[in-house]
Protein: CRISPR-associated helicase, Cas3 family
Organism: Neorhodopirellula lusitana
Amino acid sequence: MPHYAHSLPDNPDRSKWETLQQHEQAVAKLSASFLNRIDVELAAWGELVGRWHDIGKYSDDFQGYLASAGGSDVHDSEISGKVDHSTAGAQLAFGKPSPLGRLIAYVLAGHHAGLPDWDVATGRSGLKQRLYKKVPNWQNEETKELEELEIPQTIPIRPPHTRETFCRHRIGAFRVTFLTRIIFSALVDADFLATEAFMSPSQSIERTNSIVGMSDLSDTFAEHLADLRSTAKPSPVNQIRDEVSEACVNASHLAPGLFSLNVPTGGGKTLASLQFALRHAEHHGLDGVVIGIPFTSIIEQNAKVYRDVFESLGEGVVLEHHSNTDPEQETTRSRLQTENWDAPLVVTTNNQLFESLFACRTSRCRKLHRIARRVIILDEVQSLPVELLTPTMLAIRELVESFGCTVVLCTATQPALHWQQDFAIGLHGIRDIVPASAKLHDRLRRTTVNSIGPLDDGELVNRINAKNQALCIVNTRPHASKLFAELDYSESNFHLSTRMCAAHRINVLNQQIRPRLDEGLSCRVISTQLIEAGVDVDFPVVFRDVCGIDSLTQAAGRCNREGRADEGNVYFFQGERRPPPGTLRMSADHGLEIARHYNDLLSPEAIEAYFRLHYWQQKDRWDFRQVMDAIGRDPSCMEFQFRQIADRYRFIDEEAETLYVPWMEGEQLIHRLSESEFPPDRKLRRRLQRYSINLRRHEMAQLHAAGAVLPFHGYATLTQRHLYDEKLGLVLLNADGVVPPSDLMC
């Protein structure tokens, strides 16, 4: 009798079921095609892992489970411990004479539960333990051909750069782990797609892409830029933007690799970088573009621009993948695309992009093979965390040198990541898209930075109140709320921080702050750093609490942004409170050090000196999270701790807990959540996300202790409305257990 991979719900007719041979051949074909795009040598690896991945399903145990499962998701069966069918393939690969069998063993062992650690001393989940685990017998007449397949003898691992001064063995080990994830990604995506095609053909059809190539996107974007130019008024700024655009067009024909687009705020970097990316991808036959952005506040405004530009090309061209995606913009197609990034233009966060490159779970790794052979734009690249620099730099190198990517490092400051004699992990061969001779920093300068030293809160508030329009940026949420409370009570004063949910912040920005600025009305804003990251506002005066010079440059980009005044003023001050320990304090200390030696804090010389302190002379912090230790030094033994790598490579070290708050529509959404006897569907979850705040565990515990939180279907919701202020957002200081009568009323 034939052996089966999948049954059908409520259909006992086995002639309609999918056989193992049908499934393994479909997966092998898909995974081989995915990897062939990257390198023809990898196609054989994709073929092999596709043929071997489900070999354990030939066991009588699994076939019996399948017959009794009634069409339930057999992929979940292994995770829940009912049937282990993936260890068999790992053991087969490891038993082959090739030393590369262990690489395949990782891929096969993890194709449902995720890439395993090599050794887990306290359990049985490590690959080392599973290779000697007793599994149900799967060998029979049907498996003989599979057992005879051989492992390819070579893998396309590039040697380290000839100028390499960093440990060559570590680079070798890193490259093997990276390649393992890419092969794993191709297998996992192929397995999901092939299973979906059989189990849910209607959903599989939803994935079908219209034929939109890079030339279509490039031509459409060129038309958009031409329309903008035809309506733009002649000005020095627009002339510079035209020069930047022309430089991007000229550089787009250069060979793929590493590029730097160093353009000050206001120079048209956002549109110019995409122009380069689309033309470059079209010219070199690359598969698409990925745009990585530090914060969701920029993504939302940029993605809307991209959607509007490419609307005529149909659905599925622009994929916006981040936590605050507007649910009204989500479709069935875009939801499916977020699973594997099968879209020509992906807009995401640096967090999502880089953490995926080091992930171990199937859901996060599935997209990785589609990142290969793309243009990757890294916006505000100088914001990459120092504590993860070594693995991050190696990942960027690997994308370029082994996986056919072009990476564009976008920054409004001097490039920080070039290889230097004292920065051994820096990037080699970066080409500047805009020549230094253009002197854009001098020509686009519209502000003067005044370093005014220590300033207590009272004097700072007096200075802010004296201005008709002013922005003050401080380092912590408590400091922002305290300063706001001390301002004159007025409808002209505003507060922004992540204590406000995303929908609240967007409302304040779009409905209150921006209109007042445009109309010349009084407008004073106290904000945390969130406003620095590309938020399009224009103040004549900006106060910035002590910070890194890169952050100061971003703050200056909110001052006289449109050049309405002859010159804007940025006041760099030292507030009453030092920034909290960690990255913020280290950046601030380095910023103060530069301020002692340079009068012009935005000069290229001052910025270079800052990066020397902040990046290049921080060797002990380049791998502070010890990601490289989990990878190891010896690529030949392949004793990789994939789960430890994923746990250690996190942009945000502490896991945040999500709280949903009853602001505006959020109150009705929480009511729907509380009244339903079923868990929320995806659309309700996505809508709720815009009314959420991330809290540290001790902060959530404080709210629980005050009786201010109720969980509905596992989702924490704020039940005491008085704790959410219309100006400040969540006010934890008021969580004392005393509930006003208004919160008790229906």
Q: What stands out?
A: The chain has four domains: 4-203, 214-434, 446-601, 657-744.
